[in-house]
Amino acid sequence: MWYFSWILGIGVALGFGIINVMWLEASGKFTRDAAPGEPRASTTSTTTNSAGTASPAGSTKD
């Protein structure tokens, strides 16, 4: 019977996690989001190549 309580515990933990994510999504507040009124941070960085033009970071084209 130990397996019954083990499966029940896993189910409760998964259910709690799913409900938590749904609640966070519905409230619209994630810690990675900017506060209201703050400008959004850019998620991509650029580098300047030898020709002086901007290219995405990690690009090896010259």
From TrEMBL:
Region ranges (Disordered): 32-62
Pfam families, alphabetized: YbgT_YccB
Keyword match Transmembrane: yes
TM stretches of this protein: 6-24
Keyword Cytoplasm: no
Low complexity bias: start-end ranges: 41-62
Name of the featured protein: Cyd operon protein YbgT
Native source species: Paraburkholderia phenazinium
